[in-house]
Structures are given as structure tokens and as C-alpha cells.
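<instruction>
Derive C-alpha cells from the sequence

<record> Sequence and C-alpha cells follow
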Amino acid sequence: MKYRHIGMLSVGHMATDINQGALPALLPFFIAAYDLSYAAAAGIVFAANMTSSIVQPLFGHAADRFSKPWLLSAGLMLAGLGLALTGIFQGYQWIMFLAIISGIGIAAYHPEAARLVNFAAGTRQGTAMSIFGVGGTLGFAIGPLIVTAALLQWGLKGTLVLIIPVSIMALVMTSQFSTFASLASHENRDQRLSGTEKTKDNWNAFSRLTITIIGRSIIFYGLNTFIPIYWIHALNQSKSAGAMALTIFASAGIIGNLLGGSLADRIGQKKVILLGYVGLTIFLPILILVNNVQAATLLLIPIGLVLYGTYSPSIVLGQKYLPNRVGFSSGITLGVAVAIGGGAAPIIGRIADLYGIWYSLASIAVLPVFFSAIVLSLPTVE
């Protein structure tokens, strides 16, 4: 495994996803500055995320046909520059347009980077992809902190701080174009020598895997959105306690991501994904049945471990099902499937409005049984 290459791509992933994490944190400032409605503010995030998710497979398809390492630097710069300029160009239309530009940049980076991580991984694809995933998770966590501190210090112009991390990493990536191009060419040569190119893409299995990734996304967005609310309204805790519960869940997720990738290299991707859904089948119902805050908090640790543990095995398995379209596979599993799952969050919210927050989490808790059955039907790939 080429650790230096994977490390650079993972740090680039962090720099890119700083912008995805920062965008929701910008909304209160935009609402105050331009008197936006909540729906209008949420529309900015929705437009950016949907654009990114829809465009990602297109960039992935392009990367499969023509290896373009320059997409890494271009994606980084668009992701950061688009969001950085939202504080300079005034007006809702400009903010919406620039957020979409940022989304396109994010879409450009992910498939090419995931494709190169696959090439650099050697036989430890799960471990490599989990390291790549942790980079993105850290970006989501750091983004709100950076942009909030900058805007409190300098006002809306503080968004310009977002250009710094992407500029640094774009320069690093530019200096490595020849290395990344060589990595891709060596992989293509090895495929020709081993006959891998003749391996057929298993679209049926990939479609079923995509359904399980959508399921993971529904569960993730549901928990990420409603854990703080559940802590406040169902367990009668403070807002700070609700935020702390979310932090514990996310922290366990980082560890789960690394463990899931490493375990997948030993026992296989399908087994790890199945273990994850079986674990959720056990722990999620227990979570909504306990009334003790300490017990509920402790349960967030195994839930975070098993949920995030399926992240990298799912991406790697998708790449194995489509060995001739690794970039396209990455675009689907990193983008479209996740976005579709995220679109279920308003439905879960509607359940909470009609029946209460407990029933919204109960609707999430029953899902792993269904997705476990789909995982069982997936073929194993060596």
C-alpha cells in the first residue's frame, strides 16, 4: 500500500469536505444578513448537495475513460473558491450560484481521488478507503469551526478563509500530477497483464449494493439529524447534552471507519457490511427502548462503530463489482446513493411532526432488517 499517495489524497479529501461541512454553518449568517426564510436557506444546501451528487458519476465516467489528475486540483479550487466568494458577492442568487459551483468542485474531486486510492491500495483496499473516508469526516467536523470563527471575527468577508486549505492542497496535488498519472498507467498495465479488463461488470450486484448504501445513508442522516432532538425531547436533556451525544456518535464513527476498512481486508467486504447491519438491527431498537440517559449514550458508541464501519467496504465492493468503471462506481457510492438517502430525512421529520420523535427513530430502527437481507444476496468477490 502506497501510504504517501493515500495520505495526500485523504488530506485533499479533508480540504474538499471542509466546504461541505462549512455550508450549513454559514446559513445563520446569510439569514441574518439577507433576511432569508428557513426554506430559502435550506435550499442553498440542497442545491449544492444535489448538484454535487448528480454530477459525480459524470466525473467518475470521465475519469474511467481518460485519467485526469488535474481534476483533483481543479475540484479543490472550485470547492473552496465557490464558497469563499459567497461572503463577497451579495444577494441570494449569487450565493445559490456560488454554492452550486462549490458542489461541482466537490463532485470533481471525489471520484478521481477514490479511483487513485483504489490503485494505491494494493491488497489493502479496505484500509486505504477507510483512511480516505476519515479525511472527509474530519473535513465535515472542521469546516463549521473554521468558518464560524472567521465570520465572527471578520463578518461575511470571513468566508475568504476557505480558500486557504484548498489552495495549499491544490498546489500539492499539482506537484504530484506525474506521480498520479504514473500510478493510473501502472494499474492499467497490470490489468492488461492479468486479464482484469476482461472481467465483466456485475451491474445486478452493484444495483443491490447501491440500495444498501442508500439504506446506510437514510439511517445516518436520520440519526445525525434527530439524535440531538431525541435527547432533548424524549430523554429530557439539555441542548448541550444533545450536541455531546452527536459528538460521541461521530467520534465512534471515525474509529468504526478505520476498523471496518481493516477488518474488510481480512474477512471480506460483504461480511463487514453484513455485520454492520446486523449490529444496527440489535442496537437501534435497544436505543429507543431504554429510558436511561447513560445507557442511551453508551449505545451510541457501538451504533457509530457498526454504521460507519460499513463505509469503506461498501465503496471497495462497488469498485470490485464494476472493475472496468472504478471511477463511475465511486461517483455513485460516494454521491448519488448518499444523496438519495439524505433525501429521506424530511420524511423522517414528517413522521416526527405527526407522531412524535420516538416514532421517527423507530422508523429508522426497523430498516436494518430489510437491508441485511439484501446484503445476504450479494455475491462475494475476491
